[in-house]
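Co-fold these.
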Amino acid sequence: MPSFERRVPEGDDRERMICADCGHIDYQNPKVIVGTVVALGGKVLMCRRAIEPRRGFWTLPAGYLELGETLEEGAAREAMEEATAAISLDGILGVFSVARIGQVQVIFRGRFTNPDRPQFACGPESLDVALFDWDEIPWTEVAFPTVHWALNAWNACRSGPPGVPAGNPPTDPRGVHGIGPVPKVE
Amino acid sequence: MPSFERRVPEGDDRERMICADCGHIDYQNPKVIVGTVVALGGKVLMCRRAIEPRRGFWTLPAGYLELGETLEEGAAREAMEEATAAISLDGILGVFSVARIGQVQVIFRGRFTNPDRPQFACGPESLDVALFDWDEIPWTEVAFPTVHWALNAWNACRSGPPGVPAGNPPTDPRGVHGIGPVPKVE
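Predicted complex below.
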């Protein structure tokens, strides 16, 4: 029956929740969202959310990374849970920071493991699952800004080399990855 | 004075710590380590750890991402805390999963913000801070495997385009990003 108090631990500079009995520090840190743009023949797999937040809006198969998983395992699990889809991954499309809500998002590019017989259906957290051509994506019903960012990153490479992962867009400069090329100093 | 019990919440499939009084679920998820290979004229900045684990061994300026930070802000903060170095970032070198200890690591490439007068010194968590040529790196005293992975990713690009971020090496296949190019199906 732990009793927690909020104070700055010795040697730290932030308040943490600390157990008054045993001194255990319950660090709260950002969480990792992992997801995938699963593509097939120029179409992308999207899920209509059956849960809040943004119930009824469209998203990518994605969710919280769990303890014990690699990013790749988490992405594949989410595609299975939300769209019953067996997928393979082939690179990272985006690495996004959503600092306001304490999230880091890592979005992969993927494909159906059996592209000749792609299988997908609603998992318990989805109202609908569908493949959309780029021009068919229900843009006004997209659940989160990061879904736009990830789709744009996919559209920039499609089935070509994924290249440098996208970061937050310039309109959100705190999460932009770079400042341009490093000057050649060697 | 919360009293927590460990059980599987409704609609979930994993045990979580749940407050018996209010039903609050204390999700425990992997944490994000963010760090930087800060390079100057072919040398890289490393810090000798003053804290456990691996006290006395050499690492990169890196640490836990904090709530409210973007990845970039966390990487810059760690370089300041551990090496009193003001840095700028220009891309992601590696995205690693260390599932055994519940970590995701995002490692940037960086430079001193003022490369003409690079400034660095020991922060409270460092015993020593130094710039090393590749052949001078104390390889047998490197703190963690991911430091090797990040340094190798830097050495593969140096000051050229960072390209696709490294994942875990093939010897650790659960965290390898890709399965090769996506077949052209469009």
